[in-house]
Design a protein that fits this description.
It is a single chain. The chain has 10 helices and 12 strands. By secondary structure, the protein is an alpha/beta fold. The mean pLDDT is 93. The structure holds zinc ion. Zinc ion binds next to loops.
Length: 315
């Protein structure tokens, strides 16, 4: 008989972190969230996380001995072997190089795994969301940037140090827009919500910049604004171009689109699906399922635990 183990999931984002008790079936039993940026990162994120984890466990009356391990989803590029922060967005102070795994293992004396947040999201969706029963999955998260994660034959594609799946930064346009990563023409410069907003702003001379965001754009599109519909179509085309290439490389059963815009079924997911299916080779189309993410903000937390379970062979 399978005993139901209890795990701790921690999802560390750039501004806030989420913490939850998760059982073997993937049910979230208790959850809490807290800011990690309250003092501009003067208190290192990991210190805030440890302090709030202690408070959380005390509040819910769970002792460390009852836990089977800690799965961490973290912002930045994560070396999964070492459980360290290998790369980080420049604005987060006191984060790059943090030995997250070692600090938590020494504090709690439990097995700890750490993986990048986009990689955890795809693991979460495979465990409890849109990709259940799929062994080959690609997920992109469309937001300020583009994040990604790839599962190949039931294993997270992690690369030599665990930072594979940076789907925002493959080149889709030669001599294209300069990217924050130092390259030009990166996928995220065309496929992110930021890129969509930029294109609409370039068109508009009557609206102030602050009026235009993803919600505004989709509202206008729903009302039939032809100029916006044209830009939206071009943007979806760029997203499709990247995904078509990935589908031909990885032959997935499921492609998941995450991020706030993925809730736009009619105006985004449906046309995206159509554009992809039109261009992929027929034999790649047969088993292919393209859909919106299902877990929303809980994907990272659940995926962190899914990764821990798989990595540590905990059922
Ligand atoms: Zn880039």
């Amino acid at each position: 008989m399978q005993t139901n183990k209890i795990f701790l999931g921690i999802d560390i984002g750039g501004t806030a972190a989420k913490i939850g008790l998760v059982n073997s079936d993937g049910d979230i039993l208790e959850m809490d969230s807290f800011s990690v940026s309250f003092d501009g990162y003067q208190t290192p994120i990991i210190e805030t996380v440890v302090k709030n984890t202690d408070i959380f466990l005390k509040r819910i009356g769970t002792s460390v001995e009852n836990l089977s391990g800690i799965g961490v989803s973290a912002t930045g590029q994560i070396n999964v072997q070492e459980g360290t922060v290998a790369g980080s967005a420049g604005h987060i102070a006191n984060w790059l190089g943090t030995p997250v795994k070692t600090i938590l293992e020494e504090h709690y004396h439990l097995p700890v795994t750490v993986a990048n947040d986009a990689n955890c999201a795809v693991m979460g969706e495979q465990w409890k969301g849109a990709a259940k029963d799929s062994r080959n999955v690609i997920m992109i998260t469309v937001g300020t940037g583009v994040g990604g994660g790839i599962i190949v034959q039931d294993q997270l594609l992690s690369g030599s140090v665990g930072i594979a799946g940076e789907l925002g930064h493959f080149t889709i346009k030669k001599d294209g827009i300069p990217c924050s990563c130092g390259n030009t023409g990166c996928y995220e410069s065309y496929a992110s919500t930021t890129a969509l907003v930029r294109r609409v702003k370039e068109l508009s001379d009557t609206l102030s910049d602050t009026d235009i965001d993803g919600r505004y754009i989709f509202r206008q599109a729903a009302e039939g604004n032809q100029k916006i519909l044209k830009i939206l179509d071009e943007w979806i085309q760029d997203i499709a171009v990247g995904l078509i290439g990935l589908i031909h490389i990885f032959n997935p059963e499921t492609v998941i689109i995450g991020g706030g815009v993925s809730q736009q079924e009619e105006l985004f997911i449906c046309p995206l699906k159509e554009k992809i299916l039109k261009k992929v080779m027929p034999c790649f189309r047969e088993n292919l399922h393209i859909c919106a993410a299902e877990l929303g903000n809980n994907a990272g937390l659940l995926g962190a635990v899914a990764f821990l379970k798989k990595h540590e062979n905990l059922k």
